[in-house]
Amino acid sequence: MSILYRSDAPRAAAWVRYFAEHAPDLDFRVWPDAGDLAEVEYLIAWQAPAEFIARLPRLKVFFSSGAGVDHVDFSALPGHVPIVRMVEPGIINGMVEYVSLAVLALHRDFFDYMAAKAARIWDPLEVPPASARTIGVMGMGALGCAVLERLASYGFNLRGWNRSPREIEGVESFAGPDQLQPFLAGCDVLICLLPLTAATRGILNRELFSLLPAGAALINVGRGPHLVDADLLEALDSGRLSRAILDVTEPEPLPADHPFWAHPRVFLTPHVASMTQPESAAPILLENVRRHQRGEPLADVIDRCRGY
Ligand code: GLV
């Protein structure tokens, strides 16, 4: 029984250690030291290039090494091979930390104070309570729900928007295209945690920004192509939006001449909001392999038609 890991090389050793200790019966291999590819039944990878997948005739399950699967070429994977996304506590905690930090930095005016410090200006702003702000999360999946739960602990007003209805205690929920407008109308801070699909590509655009309260802020931790860059710049420059915190861009890395770099109200990080942590991901992936071996349904299988 062979598993091949073909992803982030620096973290491979931790995966190898975990499997050696907890699943010595499984032959865990790390690319490029992969042995006979015809023996590989499980693949852990970020991408599925067709010419590589064609060399794995006995592949049974494709495990994405990340939470998103938008970069995976589904057509390269035979229909009988389930595609499993990465849902694990490490990736969830990372996202919760990043988004909490971003929301609190906006709430407590840290970006204004950074500018004020640079200009040596001592100018205390009002300090409204968290309950005076409404934070909206687009995408109420595993990450979105965990983020909402943590933000609730600070006392923010919370709302969520999802393709299909989701109920979370203490969160005002909106679903589907018809409820997007009322959802947006109340968001002081909008967080994008949507999967990237044909339906969500370019969703953060001029029209959407026009439906937010004037002066709202955007946090994009989804994917770069969710955002129409020119529309964001226009919304920031006209004052419709106050700030944007972006962890993802299109393309990545962002070219050095892109206007986001120099924009005073865009804060950028290089796609680091959250990462798979081998220590917490390996046990979950192993449990899924065991399920498969026992003939039980796998957890976190994506729906190829839906795209996530
Ligand atoms: C990172 O962006 C991931 O999808 O895990």
TrEMBL record:
D-isomer specific 2-hydroxyacid dehydrogenase NAD-binding domain sequence ranges: 102-273
Q: Give GO terms: molecular function aspect only.
A: glyoxylate reductase (NADPH) activity; hydroxypyruvate reductase [NAD(P)H] activity; NAD binding
Q: What class of enzyme is it?
A: oxidoreductase
EC number(s) recorded for this UniProt protein: 1.1.1.79, 1.1.1.81
Q: What Pfam families does UniProt report for this protein, alphabetically?
A: 2-Hacid_dh (PF00389), 2-Hacid_dh_C (PF02826)
Protein keywords: NAD, Oxidoreductase
Q: Locate the D-isomer specific 2-hydroxyacid dehydrogenase catalytic domain: which residues?
A: 37-301
Protein name, please? Glyoxylate/hydroxypyruvate reductase A
Highest lineage ranks of the organism? Bacteria, Pseudomonadati, Pseudomonadota, Betaproteobacteria, Burkholderiales
